[in-house]
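Most newcomers find our protein records easier to grasp once they have seen one. Read left to right, the backbone structure tokens trace the chain's path through space. Nothing more is needed to start thinking about how sequence determines fold. An example says more than a description, so a record of this kind follows:
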Amino acid sequence: MRRQGAGPSQASSAEAARARQYLSNPPFLIDCAYAHREQVKQGGARWDPNAKKWFAPNVDTLRRLLQPSSAVHCNPVGLCARSVGALLSAINQLENA
């Protein structure tokens, strides 16, 4: 049974809101596998020794690391996999504004 008020448009708007919130708080923490640390570093990410996480210092680096065509699989910290598409769309909207 489907919950009332949780339709696809509301879910996608919630994901877009989470993506905008994420973009408003740089640096952008990302989760990447330890085995990919060299590729992540070459992609422009930096290591935060206090948070013990990789981060993208700017939106361009974040977009490069999150692209589906990227050789390295990274996820934004605090966002589910479904929100990555919304995040990439929000980045594109920022660039086109």
User: Anything to note?
Assistant: The chain has four helices and four strands. The two ends are 41 Å apart (CA to CA). The beta strands are 28-32, 46-48, 53-56, 74-76.
